[in-house]
Amino acid sequence: xxxxxxxxxxxxxxxxxxxxxxxxxxxxxxxxxxxxxxxxxxxxxxxxxxxxxxxxxxxxxxxxxxxxxxxxxxxxxxxxxxxxxx
Length: 86
What we know:
This protein has 1 helix and 5 strands. The protein has 86 residues and is mainly β. The chain has one domain. The protein is globular and about 35 Å long. It comes from Parasponia andersonii (Sponia andersonii). This is DUF4283 domain-containing protein.
């Protein structure tokens, strides 16, 4: 299924489309990252449109490196319009 996922705890330098695809692909398959015309995002979180295998548990976050020599950071995922239970 396709979901929009919000990614939190990214540094300001990570709020761009090419960097946003790194944690987006940790969720599953990242289709697109929501940015402005300059491929930047100035919101509180970065949003990515992802395809998720709903037969597997959803990831709540991931540790990612934003560059070859960059430090490892923890990115938190929040799925939009996801209804649990019932």
